[in-house]
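Lesson 9: reading folded outputs for more than one chain in a single document. The general rule is that every protein is listed as its sequence immediately followed by its structure tokens, and records are never interleaved. Here is the first one.
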Amino acid sequence: MYGNQNETVRIIRDLNDAFRKTGIGGRIMLTIGIRELGERAVQEVIEKIRKFSDFNENNDPHGEHDFGSITHNGIKVLWKVDYYDRSLEFGSPDPSDASITTRVMTIMCADEY
């Protein structure tokens, strides 16, 4: 998709980036493994995810900036953004429309996957 991205993908990417950087427009879910790292580590992990910018063909083949991996104190951490309807009951019919989509970012230790 890199080099040939359509407008819908660009909109989804921009919405994902805004959500990842601010937390506005969705919910952030932390797994038990992340919570067990402690409050300070959780804040540091979230800050690293907010600053993440190493998207490329290998880790972002669809160009949506909806997944990433970081390392925190030697622990590999994964994050993934999924798209739900406003009631969080079903998948979003159109992730490029923020008025009908709730983004949910799950943050987990890689060994929890």
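And here is the second record, again sequence then tokens.
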Amino acid sequence: MIFLDTSAIYPLTDQNDTDHEEAHRIFGRIVEERTPLLTHNYVVVEAMALIQRRLGLAAAIHFENSTRNFEMVWVDQEIHREAVLRWAKGRRTLSFVDALSFTVMKRHQTDTAFAFDSDFVAAGFNVLTAAPRR
């Protein structure tokens, strides 16, 4: 199972993003290998907002429709509180959504993320991208 982050979702959606080709190459390999993708509803909300703001409502709706292909963790109060504790102990620049992602990954014993976000590497996870940048 591979965790799917907003930092990979956006370049998959935006053909003009500098990481678009690499994101599609990696995504194609994930699909070909039939590796399940895991994410959570906070990532979906974050990605939808980013896509809508930059690419428009139709692109955001198209992405939301694709989420049925992922294993979705719906964040409840317990997961949220655990992520708050992780976030509060973290670096000043760590986003809450990333802290929540790390919590979900730990709970699901997933050590690999499809992400272009260096915070995943800093937290000790493997990433499928050549060089996380964001």
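What the second record shows: Residues 2-127 form a domain with the Rossmann fold fold (CATH 3.40.50.1010).
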